[in-house]
């Protein structure tokens, strides 16, 4: 039985009331809501809001919920660990669970060299760790990152972001240079040239990149770009940092998206999906000789290596292997991509489907006036029972990042809903009230 059930307008009255309460209690900077919806529960690959509307989840809580919702094995793993010892404060007193998960990360991340793990609570602090390590190791300050790249909102990670609007008035670290992320071979040549010119100055500690640029619109670079980039950085003794916060833990169809590009980063940063949303946890995995340049207490937190969180992460990694979910991500991602590519070339607004595995984006733009449609189409999908996201500099891309447990029937449902929305737009049957509600309730990361 399909559990999808929509019984109110989107957002419903209870969601609207809840958002008003949130705005009266929580600072507005922490809200970039996609639809004005407040969620209340989840089961399997489905989520339900406070108004009782149930949707097929194609956002995974911002690419976090790798294994779907309500998994009793993960809940029990956390409970058992917390019942034994809910907190050891690893910086003072290590625990076996954190050591075990660190060993697992070392085994499954690319590179046969000696590594060390630095634990934290969010992808942002894992990027901070990488920047600290690179600067300490090289004795240089400058960091290269990409325009429209997103790396977090702590001090150093925020400065690395390529969304300049987030920097306004914050007096951030000035040791960051930005270049364009390439989508074509011609753009890649220009970008590599710009990076080499920066490297020649002799003050670059590292470059930080996503392999596929996520919040910038799921931009996939030419196949040889990352290999050339890594070679160039090492030629100038700079550190190559790959941000796998959004793309890692199997989302791309491999353990790490960088494996698709045949590269081995010096430092790999991960978070989000490593606990499937059951606990906040991040990890920075670095070459030993780099990581060990940081001295006592230069990067630690009270909750570093949190015992129950690491126990859950270890269980998540075990499930990903045993249930062959990396393989499922690759198969279902291919199905999703092929289904949506049928729209490209038939409907003018359907521009491009891009990504790897279930790290997928669908760019939609009205050719009549160049209006970006990613956010608006996502809103319409929600009205029909499919819950995607949207991103890109102008909210021009639908974000399609379902749980890795998604099945063939569910992917086909998503393709059918998105296809229906595209057809509504092109045949001028798109509801005006949907446009009005989108303008009223959606915030989003980009601008449109």
Keywords:
448 residues, alpha/beta, Aspartate Aminotransferase, domain 1, Aspartate Aminotransferase, domain 2, 16 strands, 17% strand
General description of the model:
The protein has 448 residues and is α/β, with parallel strands linked by helices. The protein folds into two domains: 13-63 and 324-441, Aspartate Aminotransferase, domain 1 (Alpha-Beta Complex), CATH 3.90.1150; 72-322, Type I PLP-dependent aspartate aminotransferase-like (Major domain) (Aspartate Aminotransferase, domain 2, 3-Layer(aba) Sandwich). The chain contains 14 helices and 16 strands. It has helices at residues 13-25, 60-63, 72-84, 96-108, 123-138, 155-160, 185-199, 225-235, 288-291, 307-322, 325-341, 374-383, 408-426, 432-441; strands spanning 39-43, 46-49, 54-57, 115-120, 142-146, 176-179, 204-209, 239-243, 267-270, 282-287, 350-356, 359-366, 371-372, 386-387, 389-391, 397-400. The chain has a seven-stranded mixed beta sheet with strand order 4-10-9-8-7-5-6, sandwiched between helices. Helix 3 (72-84) packs antiparallel against helix 10, helix 4 runs parallel beside helix 10 and helix 12 (374-383) crosses helix 13. The longest helix is centred in the C-terminal third of the chain and has 19 residues, at 408-426. It is globular. The model has no long low-confidence stretch (mean pLDDT 97).
